[in-house]
Amino acid sequence: MARLSKAALAQFTLAGIATRMVPALDPDRWSPAYPGGLVRLRVTLLPQGPRDARQWCRVCAWGADDTGMELDFFEDAIARAERWNRWLSNLAVVSQDMLRGLGFQWA
Fold it and tell me: Taking Cα atoms as reference points, which of 13, 25, 16, 18 lies closest to residue 89?
């Protein structure tokens, strides 16, 4: 399994690998969406525990308040984070139904 240095991990954890505001097809379902009908999507690498050098990947989507969806990966975290970062870079619109179809769960 690939490992990140502590400095690289800290950078990814603080900044996330990618964060984008994406237009929602269903802005009224995000309780509420951000202004302009946007949803915040983020790909992040996080440590598995305080004494564990392994990482895990979280992909999440949040409205402006408390409606969010998440998808977590504990295996191949770096490769999955890179793959989801590419997906996010090409994403034009998002919806809750699309995310559920990809395996996202309510947060």
Answer: 18
